[in-house]
Please model this.
Amino acid sequence: MLVPLSWLKDYVDIDIQPKELEEKLFSCGFEVEELYEIGKDIENVVVGLVEECEPIPETHLHVCKVNVGEAESLQICCGADNVKAGGKFPVALVGASVYMTAKDHKTVEGVMKIKKGKLRGYDSFGMLCSGVELGLTENMYPGAGYNGLLVLPEDAQIGADVKPLLGLDDWMFDISITANRADCQSIFGIAREVAAVLGKELKTPALDYTVTEAKKDGFTVNVDATDLCPRYIAHYVTDVKIEESPAWMKRRLALVGCEAISNVVDITNYILKELGQPMHAFDCNFLEGNAINVRRANDGEKITALNEKEYTLDSSNLVICDGVKPVAIAGVMGGLNSEIRDNTSEVMFECAKFARDNVRKTSRALGLISDASSRYSKGVDEYATVMAIDRALHLIQELGCGKVSSTRVDANIGNSVEPKEMKVSIAKVNGVLGIQVPTDEIIRILTNLNFAPVVNGDELTLQIPAYREDMESYPDVAEEVIRMYGYDHVTPTFMPTAKVTTGGCNLKQKTDMRLKRALCGTGAHECIHYSFFSPADLDMLKLPEDAKERMAIPLINPINEGLSIMRTTLAASMIHAMARNQKRGNLEGRLYEMGSIFVPKALPLTEYPEEQNVLCVGLFGDKEDFFTLKGMAEVVADTLSIKFTYERTTKTFLHPYQTAAIMYNGMEVGYLGKVSYEIMDSEDMRTGAYVMEINLEKLSDSFGNVPKFKPLPKYAEEKRDLALVMSKEITCGQVEDCIKEACAYVTDVKLFDVYEGKPIPEDKKSMAFTVVFTPKDEEFGADSVDGFVETILKKLNKKLEIELRA
Amino acid sequence: MQGNGLNEQLDAIKQEILSGMETLESSKAVYEFKKTFMDSKTGKIGQLMKGMKDIAPEDRAEYGKSVNALKEWALVEFEKLDELMKEKELTARYESEKVDISMPANKVETGNLHPITLIRNQLIDIFASMGFEVFEGTEIETDYYNFTALNTPQDHPARDMQDTFYLSPEFLLRTQTSAGQIHVMENTKPPIKILSPGKVFRSDDDATHSPMFSQMEGLVVDEGITLCDLKGMLDVLVKKIFGEGTTTRLRPSYFPFTEPSVEVDVSCFECGGAGCKLCKGTGWIEVLGAGIVNKKVLEVCGIDSEKYSGLAFGIGIERLAMLKYGINNIKLLFESDVRVLNQLSE
Model:
């Protein structure tokens, strides 16, 4: 929120520097996001009197003698059409800094330093300035909008710095207000805090006015929806003269970013900024039925707002109506039908409190955001509502733009703006803080905050002003005390009263970490991807319509289509990550992610969905292959001290012949395989890529498994290498299983070579295995292993027609 | 056989050995050459020993003594030469195996944990030692647990502070890990010390905001917990993360679920508080939000707020990771570029 220091000073005597005030505000909870002098770029510009002014022949220029309060006048060349002898203008001296403008003399193009110059042979020692060159607009200083020199008042002191004269020495505070302090969403609200923190008196803006004879007979206000409008005050003003606002008001509105429109409208905007209360002014000539009705809109009801756009309303919107038709969308924007015009002669002021969430919802639903709706969305307190109507009437009188009538209708559901009494224990306040704040400090602080504290033993009785709706109980009081007393008084302690507890990770969390570290050991980097993805990702994976992955939970309000459903597989994000790396020239890499997939029981959600922890591994690069990825599956199994088996399977997004289902205890727990060429093509991938997913929920019964120690064999093991010739269809797994079945002494079978080609027949292949035989209760006899081999070969031959290679 | 003849014969062998030795160039050659003399069957000295039986008994002692002397001498000589050869050979072997140590290392490539995991682990280590249990809530939460129970009812302006992704009128993506703390407080009696790390979601997307990011929330509920305890704990935390010299500053702020609420700044670890680019010249860096648990929140969970009080804090893990590793764009953390991941080891 923008707060000009000069405006703030209306309510508090501030005798400290802006920087110091910034620090004070910061320490009591108001962060100043930006602090700057309004004329921060203007330097060395003084009041000058043009004593002589001669035209330079054949140009539009004049050469002037300018008195800047020095012994000698300065010679300055000037091209403005309103330069004249006897006039007082701002003079940028040599070395001064002012704004540089474009050819149009209006657009600021940066800051420039004034140097000694020469124009058409005439030396020029400075520059006579326009308003724009000093960063001013017409509303900030009358005459500043003129495309020529800024004319200074006749009584301006020659040689004086122009900044105080033009208000350029003023400071601007851009203050961020936390959501609990809606009462500080105004300059007067900030002033209350400043007064409290400086221990100064707070000066309330003038609220007095004289009621005239005028009145509006029979005028009524009827609030139907008191839940959405707890207070509605209407006051009738007559004999209105619509004119421009005075310069002081226009300047203040300009400083806080409000456009000046006309006196009556400006008053409502001024009060919004000053007191934080949105107001509206209706042209009474266009109100029918001598009444205001506040009600929920009818479905389909239409209104054209001040922005000349038509809005269709429904019963969730609150409308202000006259006796006949809607005239405003409550708290958001007035209707075009009753707007203040140049010839408006009677005005009905509205000063109301509307429910913050209703204004917010209406404003969002209609896509219509105004200063009023933003303010209402943060919450308006009735204390300000009551004050604001009087302030508006005072300003009407001060500006002389109307007669205040006696017609006021105040529709109130019974809320009081009187202070509320609160009793708290001083010990409890200190108990929250953990320090003993001296009682006289507590009293000083709460007095400054206008809480009128009275102490009786441990009991503190406070009168909480109505604008402090955030004050509910002793922790709130504790916060008020400490933010004013200073957080630097809080001394570190280490929970001396707390009980000892045991901490750390649970088994699942520890297992996750063990798996991550094991995968890092295989050279894979952990990555993290968004929990949501795109419906297009399901199409990329070519998943059929009835695939379980298609049952993804949609977001109602996603950022975009690409992030619009919750993940049901991690494979898509992993494939994108691998493709993205390749696009950036990273042609090899190993990645893994551990994250949740979201499995709803029904859609739309009626209960919590299952969040299943899934591991996804991605490998890409020319050196990678199916078996490297299978090795990583084995690392997972080893880490958990379990065994996986693998079954050939197919997946729509994987190579038809390089895909396996990962089985654990007869249950499919995941898959691995090579990314299909179709996807490599569609994702623009240059090197082979492999992806694996394992659902860790399905392995959770193994978490905490401790590897069982097997005693070392008592007797020497024996190994035999067997080169076997078989049909190409036979798999390594089949051979391994057959060998193990054939002999109970076989403890390991390891493939070490696969060969096709001469002298092996064309339709066959050779696979060579090392078979390990481990004796059980006694040593092997001289020929026993040869006997085992023979049995194995027989079985291989019988079952799979496998021959020993010649 | 004549005694003189024997001596000449022994001298000749000796000479033969000495001159033969000069030509030898390997320990293997020494072995072969040695065999031609020392082999008990075929060697020249061996044969002399065997010839003992043909010597007249009275000469045998003399003969044996002389041949033995030669044998002893020869053994010593061969031993010396063998050692010399072996030494030379070893030297040669070492020399032949000289490597260019400037050639690239043959490294076993390992992967890295994600920076978010690294920071998360670091925080868990610190708090686990203080007795905090790690509790991971769910990413999908209800409006009640994410907002209402945390003192943020439907019309609360604080809801505007967070743009929430909704999945249904009731279910949403949690905007804060505090949501999980309500579940814990509902199901556990004090003393409670929990740490809730996890992914959270807000509808924000630019260079410093990601629609998904990670938080770590801590909660203590016990008797007599105060703002001083909060300060004490946070002091320990920031010293462990940013270094012993780091100091903290509390300043008032607002969160619906804590009262009082504070923002916690740490002295800039880059410039030590003098003011630099990192801290935007202020000397302080905002790292976390914290406060005394709002008693309404305790009451909603059925905890006696007259007896117990609590403290809570929430840390943005990405922010910490970005500060620690000097990463300037949050998106880099979610793009999985191996060139980035490669650099960020523990």
